[in-house]
From TrEMBL:
Keyword line: Membrane, Transmembrane, Transmembrane helix
Protein name: DUF4386 domain-containing protein
Ranges that cross the membrane: 9-34, 54-77, 89-114, 147-166, 171-189, 195-213
Length: 226
């Protein structure tokens, strides 16, 4: 398997983790208040006490799996863009790996929080206080804003367009999603911008994945025909 094809598959995995996260938030975790800005901390603590495995599965999918797939995608796009725009590829690659690191860190903290909260099941008040603290750290790294993600998707989309890796549609989706991610830093627009970023990122990951898979298949055919 070529790196380009691996990057394409990784992009589709990233899209799948976003869809998984959205589905869980509006179904399984809806009673807990996730995604509404009014999380019921007591309900979260009670849920973790009863079903820690579900929460760990959720965190591992949307954070850890996403981050590992993202790292593959970042490297694959860097390699493709560097052929025509090495400086732009270096900048985009650095931002992308920073984002992947932050997402991975958020997932590790989220899972550690679940473990500690479950251990404190006999003291709901202490568990709620600890979860609130760790959740704030988790949100700061990978959930409460999308600055790093927005910066990378915007930068890599423009670089890929300039180097001929992406067409205008894929790059345009990335630009809109990336700008929305940057706008999440503004409190009044945070929730709306976050939703636009998330939905836009799903479309962008799918589009980028299909582009890379097609290019990877083309490169493979050229190699075996040479």
């Amino acid at each position: 398997m070529t790196l380009t094809k691996a990057g394409g598959l990784a992009a589709l995995v990233c899209a799948a983790t976003y869809v998984f996260g959205f589905v869980f938030l509006v179904t399984v975790f809806a009673p807990l208040g996730f995604g509404t800005g009014e999380i019921d901390v007591s309900a979260v603590v009670a849920y973790i006490a009863e079903r820690p495995g579900v929460m760990i599965t959720f965190n591992t999918t949307i954070y850890v799996l996403n981050a590992l797939a993202l790292a593959v995608l970042v490297v694959a796009l860097h390699r493709r863009i560097a052929k025509e725009r090495p400086d732009a590829a270096a900048l985009a690659g650095a931002i992308g790996l920073i984002w992947a690191t932050l997402v991975l860190g958020a997932g590790m903290i989220a899972n550690v929080a679940v473990e500690h909260i479950h251990a404190l099941a006999g003291d709901p008040e202490a568990a709620a206080e600890l979860w609130s603290t760790l959740h704030a750290v988790e949100s700061g790294l990978g959930g409460g804003n999308e600055i790093a993600g927005g910066a990378w998707i915007l930068t890599v989309s423009l670089a890929a367009l300039a180097s001929g890796v992406f067409g205008r549609i894929t790059a345009g989706i990335g630009a809109v999603s990336g700008i929305a991610g940057l706008v999440t830093i503004l409190p009044p627009l945070g929730e709306i911008a976050g939703a636009v970023f998330g939905l836009g990122a799903i479309l962008w990951f799918v589009a980028a994945g299909l582009v890379l898979l097609r290019q990877g298949r083309t490169s493979f055919v050229r190699e075996i025909s040479a």
